[in-house]
Design goal:
5 strands; about 90 residues; alpha+beta; single chain
């Protein structure tokens, strides 16, 4: 289920295979995603949830920041995604 702060893997489009964070929910079909690098907070990508693979990780840092200030720094987004990916590598190895 999509929720703000959830890490997702992009399955379709030019960013296929990369990871992003949900920062907004448009409706039951579409969410807004950013990665803090190519896709900055100021210009989120509207993406169909069918084109995303929800990861089991929800970043409480992003959730709390969005609740308090309705913003997240791009550096924090990059950090959260990197941390989630390191956890994934540890699971596989």
């Amino acid at each position: 289920m999509p929720e703000i702060g959830r890490i997702v893997r992009i399955l379709r489009g030019k960013d296929e295979g990369s990871y992003a964070v949900i920062i907004g929910i448009v409706d039951e079909r579409f969410v807004l995603i950013v990665d803090g690098d190519k896709r900055r907070f100021d210009q989120p990508k509207k993406k169909n949830v069918l084109h995303l693979q929800m990861q089991p990780v929800v970043s409480h840092e992003v959730t709390d920041s969005m609740r308090e200030t309705e913003r997240v720094t791009n550096a924090k987004l990059r950090y959260v995604i990197q941390k989630a990916m390191q956890g994934k590598e540890n699971d596989c190895g």
